[in-house]
Amino acid sequence: MRVLWGAEGAAARGPRPRQSLPQVAEAAVRLADAHGLESVTLANVARELGMTTSAIYRYVDSKDVLVELMVDRAVGEPPTLTAATWQGSAREWAGALRERYRRHPWLAQVTPSGPPRVPNPIGWIAGLVEALSSEPGIDGMRVALLLDALVRSYSAVSRASQSAPPPEWLTGALSARFPVLTSGMHRDWSDPDEELAFALDVVLAGLAAP
What is the Cβ-side half-sphere exposure of residue 154, based on CA atoms within 13 angstroms? Predict the structure, then answer.
């Protein structure tokens, strides 16, 4: 982790590492992109890099740390926001983050256990906070965390929508028990991006209200 922040200090004595920390993270990202997050183990990443499992511990000491490094690598550097309004900046930011989740669907499986500790996700938050800093009454940090949660949630829905649809009997049972939901159940919910856009409209309208 200290390496990512440029605070690793003097190099340790001994043989020079064969791989860099970004290379280890990139190998893990490739595994997750190809086979899902569940395929990422320290042993599998070591095998991907042509090293022993014991050697991988020179770079990371747990899967939790490895996943943090993977998230940093997958989300990449934050976008440059160019919209003329704060609402436009928020939409631009959310759209760029959604694209990262589209490229790496496993990101939606990563459950945050606290504030991010790696540079790129923090850079994303800082970028939106700065873009909203001149708007009176708008708490940029809260907005960034809220939009991050929205994008993650709808990306998870997108991933789940690729699985098999519910059986017909379940649809019928739900309609019978909860008739008020019948019309909604027959709507086309297959486009999570449309639902995300609606959620953004609601959130931004609420923030703009006096």
Answer: 24
- Tokens 């064969």: give the residue: 18
Task: Assign 194 to helix, strand or coil.
Answer: helix
What does the alpha-carbon distance between residue 23 and residue 50 come to, in Å, rounded to a whole number? 12
Contacts of 39 (CB under 8 A, 6+ apart): 31, 32
From the CA atom positions of the chain, what is the Rg in Å? 21
| Domains located in the chain, CATH noted | 21-74 (1.10.10.60), 77-208 (1.10.357.10)
Distance CA 195, CA 193 (A): 5
The yes-or-no verdict on residue 174 having pLDDT over 80 is yes
> Are the CB atoms for 151 and 93 separated by under 8 Å?
no
Better-scored residue on pLDDT, 7 or 73: 73
What is the chain's percent helix, strand, coil content, to nearest 5?
65, 0, 35
Reported as a single tens digit per residue, the pLDDT across 10-32 is 444 445 567 889 999 999 999 99
Is the pLDDT higher at 72 or at 162? Answer: 72
